[in-house]
Amino acid sequence: MKRTIAPETLHRSSPFFLDYIGGKPEAIACFQHSPDSLPQLAALRREAYDGSLRSEVCDALQNYNCILGADSAALRGIDELRRPEALCVIGGQQAGFLGGPAFVLYKIASILRAARWIREQLDTPVIPIFWLASEDHDFEEINHLRWIEDSGALRATSFQWEDAGRAIEQLPITDDILSAYTSLKDGVPVAEARFAEPFSPEPGDDYARWHARQWSRLFSPEGLVLVEPRTLRPLASPFFEHTLGQLPAIRSALAERATLLKAHNYPVPLDIEHAGVPFQITASEPRRRIAGLPDPTAALSADAALRPVLADSLLPTAATIVGSSELGYHALLAPLYTLFGIPQPIVFLRHGATVLSSAERTLLDVLDLGVVDILHPEFKAADVAAQRASTVLRGTFDKARATTEEALLPVRAYLESLDPSLPSRWRQTIDQVKHQIGRLEERAIRAELAKSGVSVKRLQALRPRLLPMETLQERVLSAFSLIAAYGVEWVIELAHCGTPGRFEHRILIPGDSHEQR
Length: 517
Fold this sequence. Notes:
This protein has helices at 7-10, 15-21, 25-28, 38-48, 52-67, 72-81, 103-122, 139-142, 175-187, 193-196, 207-219, 229-232, 237-245, 247-263, 307-314, 324-330, 334-340, 358-366, 371-375, 381-388, 391-418, 422-451, 456-466, 473-476, 479-486, 489-494, 513-516, and strands at 4-5, 87-93, 126-132, 144-148, 154-158, 225-227, 279-281, 288-289, 299-301, 317-322, 346-349, 352-355, 505-508. By secondary structure, it is an alpha/beta fold. It has a 5-stranded parallel sheet. Strands 1-13-12 form a 3-stranded mixed sheet. It has a 3-stranded antiparallel sheet with strand order 8-7-9, with no helix packed on it. α5 packs antiparallel against α6, α20 packs across α22 (422-451) and α21 packs antiparallel against α22. The chain is elongated.
């Protein structure tokens, strides 16, 4: 079985993404630096980074990660980040319930992989950092998760919050959240109790810290450092002062870059009318964009256009890990980096994955099918099964269909002599008989395949497992459900696969490290 899926198969509707990974000049030119310019970018990054920030940033990171109970490997990384030559790789995501969708796992694996690779290339400390976007207020993005139960049915659970619209960092662990969490522990298939342990909250956690604690428990032994915007907010005042003074220039730069993207027939993913304007967070109101002068009592918060620039003003970032949809708005940002005097980091695509169980892999191998076959829009399990039927079985039923009509031909002539309308009923009867023969044939095929250890029912259930809701598995199924089923070692294995500069969507069979490598 082929272990990767071509991006063209999965991302047909993402022209900019395909052009970027394909190396088309018009897409590559949207960014300041390519992977080939890593040494030059590293030198520029060190030169431009405000060295006086290092100690304060690292102190804040150390305090926060200690609160999370981070492994010593992550704390050693923070110590390394204090060195003037040290760099980091960063990627982030919203605080989805119990880790959010599975693609967040693959983004974390990609952050770890890129940090390791750049460290090797430059022979310098490079720290992997996950930025938890807890300032976001899009509650409907984070309040649910989906999983597939043992029966094959897709299930979902969610929780509500009466203050939806406020920043997620203000969300406590409510009774509704705890109820959803308890129901999940009882409903999601868990291979071993220890696989679910990293997801339990600690007394005193709010929702965002609980989320960060989950990732820290799982990946800080690999050196992953966690950060939330509020962790570094006291150090961000100069950035926001500069932003408020540059709003017309920011809008103009984004508009010009949007025009360039449109000229190449690329979509513009951000609302250019509003992008680049900070939000403000108060203790009692929803998060909202600044209109006029900001509330002096409010905390300022970056929007999607400003967030990467803010992060890279506070951290010595060499590379940013993004998903296919994020890539488009990062393509808008090169002029903003110029306005802020910050070299834009190299942009690497996170790798993707589709997970198979060993039983599902065996089924595909027996039928000589690939995952791509299952994902094809025209895939039908019954058609595949029919193609695998023996020539004896197919011949027997083909003959039955042919001889049925032949045997009843004399009846048709007689019926026509009695009543000209009866031949149409004759045709209906023939069609009904053939339909019943077809149903019998399907059962015969199932029985024949079952003797070879192949279940057609399992084959029918495979597509919704690999393409739930007709969407990539990684965007629907929860990280929690996959870790509960398979543990986390397979994700760590993924962090050692491939190179950052070459996008891959891998087919993974957790527990089979030989296949993954």
